[in-house]
Known about the structure:
The mean pLDDT is 87. The strands form two sheets. A five-stranded antiparallel β-sheet has the order 5-4-7-2-9, with no helix packed on it. 12% of the residues lie in helices and 40% in strands. The chain is mostly beta strands. It has one helix at residues 12-31; strands at 59-67, 72-80, 85-93, 101-108, 119-126, 129-135, 140-148, 154-162, 165-166.
Amino acid sequence: MHPTRQRSMPSRLVVLAAVTVIGSVAGLLLADGGAIAQPEWKEVPLKDGTYRQYKGTHRTDTVDIPVRPNGGEIEYMVQMKQGESLVYSWRAVDIAAPEKLSSEFHGHTERPPGTTGTLIFYRKGSGGTENGSLVAPFDGIHGWYLKNDTDRPVVVRLTLAGFYEVIPNQLPN
């Protein structure tokens, strides 16, 4: 007969040392971006229209647009190519009744005589301020129509930034 060997249980010290080593290795893998680490970033594909690159340099302008009282109206427009973008902000300076200032932000194509053009209204409303942005849906003229139904002249201060061309000689001298 063979003598029976009795197996001994590992001591608590050996188990504790093994757990410590396993924990240290797992910690190193996580810290070094190992196989079990959670990735920091999930890259997603770029969607159409999210990013645009332009050949020209962007511009910025601030323009004071005078609007006569008692139904006075004026348009201020910029020229843009399809896909160009701008960011804008305007506010009526010292207006007592902003609800009496009507505005339309719109765009239209150039229209030779005898042809039909394209017109789109981006926003219609009233009030003393507006902030927004536009990516031009077509080549053409884009801008603001303002109508002042107060009994005092109003100045609308328009600030623009982006890719556009100012149309000269729009404002009264």
